[in-house]
Amino acid sequence: MASRLNPYISFTGKARQALDFYQEVFGGSPEVNTYAQFGQAPPGYEDKVMHGMLETPAGFTLMVSDNPPGMDHTVGNNISISLSGDDDTELRGYWDKLAARGTVSVPLEKQMWGDVFGMCTDEFGITWMVDIAGQPS
User: Fold this and answer.
1) Whether the Cβ atoms of residue 63 and residue 55 lie closer than 8 Å to each other
2) Glyoxalase/fosfomycin resistance/dioxygenase domain: from which residue to which, for each copy (predicted)?
3) Number of domains forming the structure of the chain
């Protein structure tokens, strides 16, 4: 298996909801393991996500977890995720869904380097960058 890079996003109790949202955006089937399944459940965390993963039909992989009580967590500023490629329709579709209930910081539009690029923060505080490769001249 080749090496691959994918994000691992931590939450404070909303990992399952986030994973369901990302499944709506990208498709695929999430796998979820709870703290109770691993026998490591802090009080009140029995049904929280110790490890979740979503592998999508497009080959993307997202991993999520709920931080246990007492573990430092700052929403949104410790991670950003980049989606890039040359399929305009596909990438715009992801953008539309991610930005719909989020905040756009850079509108999805042509940039000086020739690509269409945008940046938004979704409803869970995660920053996304979408880059659609420009067409060669």
Assistant:
1) no
2) 5-130
3) 2
